[in-house]
Records
---
Amino acid sequence: MTALSITINGRAYGPMDVRDDLTMNDFLREFLGLTGTKFGCGAAQCLSCAVIVDNADGTSYTGPTCVVPAASFHGKTIRTVEGHAKDGMLSDLQKAFIEHFSFQCGYCTAGFLNESQVLLERLAAKPVARADLEKTIAEALDGHICRCTGYVKYHEAVRDVILSDPGRYLIVTVGGEAR
Amino acid sequence: MKSELRTMILVAVASLSISMLAAYAVAEAQSDGLATPESFASISDPAKRSVALFTELGKVLTHPRCVNCHPAGDRPRQGDEGRLHQPPVDRGTDGHGLAAMRCPICHQQANFEPGRVPGHPEWHLAPREMAWEGKTLGEICVQIKDPKRNGNRTLADLIHHIGADTLVGWAWSPGFGRRPAPGTQQEAGALAEAWVKTGAACPN
């Protein structure tokens, strides 16, 4: 057993005794009722179960929850799909996903959303040239599997959010144009 | 008739149970053994004995538990058949994965059986220049002695790496469903030491 303390979406949980063979996915879904994080392949291949892990240095990354023990998240700060909307208002990414009909069944959406959010934060810290944007988005979303709509609509949604605020996410030239 | 039916059902259940236990036994299969250095004492020619010792050690070096993390490409391999790692991952610049998919995101401090994910605190790929995949044992032997292609190790370092490095040691405790490397790490280390002491000769 491990006494697990963790911060999820800004809220502190624990210490809670968890079995060492309990997966993080089961902890989120069965212990905390945070069922927005899905269980897909169970082998870290589809990434529908991915959550955001926030490092102390301000950087973040996504990681699967289906194949890792909950105990390994002790002391960590994470974000799940439930943490994106604020005060009942969807985030820009969530709105864009809906506007683009990015998902149908929605099973993969939490993973795509978390990955896209990490991408936005990474670009805000280190913008890329417009010419590199398509490749950057494709590489960021690579590995997330969707069996309904294909990947283009997710890609377009993320691109729209970035292009709606080019000064934040893209390298802007002297003339003020994102190139 | 009822009794015959009951007997048939019991036999079927027993057969199924035995077959399931057999499958479990296969999954937990013991590794093949390794011959001891002493068993090569009858080979009087030191060079030939050295080759024989390395050939025995080669059962470990060419085992999937070792080769899968010494791949020829940038993706590790998995399973006894050496299939490409799923999910798709890349060695990255330091052998610990790409920035967005570092090895420890999935591979924890130890094997995690519920997720069937192997683990170790230093989980990573051997450097590209230390690739063994697709090479003959003779080629691996020459490579493993070359500091430019063995992580700048001396022969003494090699003995330690094979016989005591805990990441290498994972190969003998790979977790459920994975066939361990032959023998024990201690036995492999003893073979490596004997090979070095006899001149570290390589097979052709």
---
Amino acid sequence: MTSKSPRSSVLQGTLDMLILRTLLYGPAHGHQIGKHIQRTTNDFLQMQHGSLYPALHRLERRGWVSAKWETAPDRNREFKYYRLTEKGRKQLLVEESQWKQMADAVARVMWPTAEES
Amino acid sequence: MKWWQLRKRNADLEREMQSDLDLEREEQRDGGLSSEDALYAARRAFGNTALIREQTHEVWGWATVERLVADIRYSLRALFKSPGFTLTATLTLALGIGANAAIFSLVSAIILRPLPYPSPAQLVGLGQWRNQKGEGYVQTGVSAPNILDIAAQKNIFQQVAYYRWAGFNITEGNHPESVDSIKCSLDMLPLFGVQPLMGRFFTADEMQPGHDQVAILGHRLWQTRYGADPAILGKTIRLDEKTYTIVGVMPARFRFTWDQEMGVFVPLALTPEELSEKGRATSRDLETQARLQPGVTVKQAQAAMDTLAANLAAEHPDADKGWGFKVEPLHAAYYRHIGQPLLIMSVAVLFVLLIACGNVANLLLARATVRKREIAIRAAVGASRRRIAMQLLTESVVLAVIGGTLGLLLAYIGDRILTLQMAHFRRFSVPNASVINLDWRVLIFSLALTLLTGVIFGLAPALIASRTDLNESLRETGANSAAESGRRRLRNGLVVSEISLALVLLTGAGLLIRTFLGLMQVDLGIDPTNVVTMEIDLPHYKYSAPANQTQFFRQLLQRVQSLPGVTAAGIEQSGSRVFFQPEGQPPTIPGQEPTASLNIVSPGDFAAMGVAQVAGRTLNSNDAQGATPVALISETAAHRYWPNINPIGRHLSILSRVYSGKSETSTQALEIVGIMKDVRGFDLWEPRSDIYVPFEQHPISFALLNVRTAVAPLSVVPSIRDAVLAIDNEQPVNEVMLLSEQIARTYGTLRFPMTLVWIFASLALLLSVVGIFGVMSYTVSRRTHELAIRMALGADRITVLRQILREGLGVTLIGVAIGLLAALSLSRIMADYVYGIKATDPLTYAAATFVLILASLAACFIPARRAASVDPMRALRNE
């Protein structure tokens, strides 16, 4: 079995949210999404972008994103573009607020003095 | 996501992944890598494509199915790669599943298939019964007044109907023919919930004597004899001496009493005498069926009938005391006689399948050892234990399905054979036996059985084989590891169960064979060689006067006796059971009167049949009308009813017939003049009481003519026919048959179920012996190394041979011990089916045990000899 780095296991739960957030900028294909997440996290997540696809297909199945093969504006080639649906937008808000609550809660436990002082 | 989109979906994913890889590769190349390095870098960045593919498929929700398809494909490939194993296993399974499917076809046809009438569960059969001294439980039809009493229970029964078999001859046209016919009551045909194809059913008016000359035709007769004449209604048909107006035709699919195709139905007009109080005791021959009110159960109906019987016994003690009513589902009434034998056969055939499963499980275990490496490699590249076990289990089920398909083929052939064989059973009223086939019930049963079989024989091997220790397996050593000893225990356990099941079957088959041999040894009391029999039925319209009937037979016997080649000739009408009263003995309680079979014979019949005289005199021509009425009795009757007294010279009075309740015309006392040796009829199992009376004193219109010859018996038949025609040129002779053939048929019907169980037992023996052979061979092959060391250290061949045999014998003996216990505990079920021995007959058990031990020792001998011939040097060098 492939062993997982601790960082990629953190990714598991939040990958959906990251994808949805990335698509907020507009439609993108798998490679672009992967590259964007990698770049913005300064390669911290060290994500193999193949692992995006199960997540993308899951999001599509839930109706949070829609997918369509389209010709890229800068190339003479078709890519499968994913875009956020209305449902996906709402889901992003939900996940974002959950993540925030979670992060706040963790922060309060981890750095109590900063909060109290 | 639907499954038919899977393929498109898959292509889509491939394209998507490929485009990502391409893009990444281009970027890497732009970053300065060589084309090849860029490809590898892109792959590294992308990740494990196989895993991603699988995870994505998981998301689509069809992964389970896709895995199953892959497993099946893999299984087929694996099975094709080892054709020897596959062939052995599938054939074993085909035998087991096929035999089960064939027997289940019988169960389906006879027990599971509902009666072909609307709301069949409401239909019940009604009968009267009493416990008869010496004869036990006696069940009869219902008497006419009792039927009226029953029909009055409107809250229980919607309709109560009755019939009698008629047996008409159609006496018009060039060739008279006999026709299956029924005299039935007003409600009989409507009871089955059918409508006539044409015309109508009978009316209440037509149930009165004198108005009953109307007929309804069966569909087949209408087609064959009348060419499906659409204008048939109103035409007439001549049956025996009367002409009937045709008022209806039954639909093609209608069958009477489940599966009888009747030619003609006519009204059953009960006579005032039958309906009178006198008829209560004398007309107990009406076959009665009824339809329950909706919601009324058979149990409730039975309770109501019990109350009725108690009331009737109080109101009419002479006629009804001691008689009870029996209500049973009509369907159950039809298959009553065959239910239990069918159960025994089903269990026997299930045992065969279980043994087959044991063998295949053993084969799989051995195979798992061979495939250890393959399984270890699969585990090494990431397959979970669960996944491997599922794949192995899939392989078993695939194996079972192939075996099951072959089995259905075998079952189809089996069904054809069963159908032919069951035709002989008609006389024992096995219903619906003509339509044994692979109906949907059998198919579903076989499918379920197949899948279950696959899991049963596959589960343990799959679990054990998937429990691999990677290091150990890949090193491929360690024959004595813990896993190995677990496997050996399982293998031996399987063989032990196989042997015990086989022993149960062998003892069962042994009991049946001993029973059959015992029945073959039974002294029939007759000498069947060179005897030919035939039926002569004088039509009532021509021979209504008893004197004419007697005159005909007297003349016939004279002519036949003087034919060249004939040594003796006689007539008999046998078999009707009667109540009688031995004179001078205290009158017995009603319902406890002695019974016997009443046989009306000519004096020469004893010589013709070869029945020996025991005491007194036989009949002669002086025992004629007007002379002292005489009777002969059988030895059993003498012992049973005149114990410690010489019956000769004493008298007996015949009271009435048991089944019809008809009183005898002459109730005068008969003088017993002689005792004859016992004769056994169709019921070979028990001696019966017989009374013989001369036909001159008891006129009959129907008789069997028995002729003993000095030449080939069939060669005299033409001259006998001529003799008949010389007396009456219209009188037919029917059912010409050799007595020996008739007896062979009786034995044949007994032999058939015995043969089936015997076949199953042989299969069981064969399979379990193959099982122990396989296990011992395997053991020896695994222990070559150990044996070689022993022999190198000085053990001689005999010691090794003995050691292996002892091991095989140990396994066998445990199986035998368990099997004997099981067989003994099942012997109670067999008790009803054995004759002349006990169901715990020690000889049978000993013989079965002996055969099994001998066979399994023989099976062990081959591997044992191979073990003994191990060349220690070569075996050790091969390590």
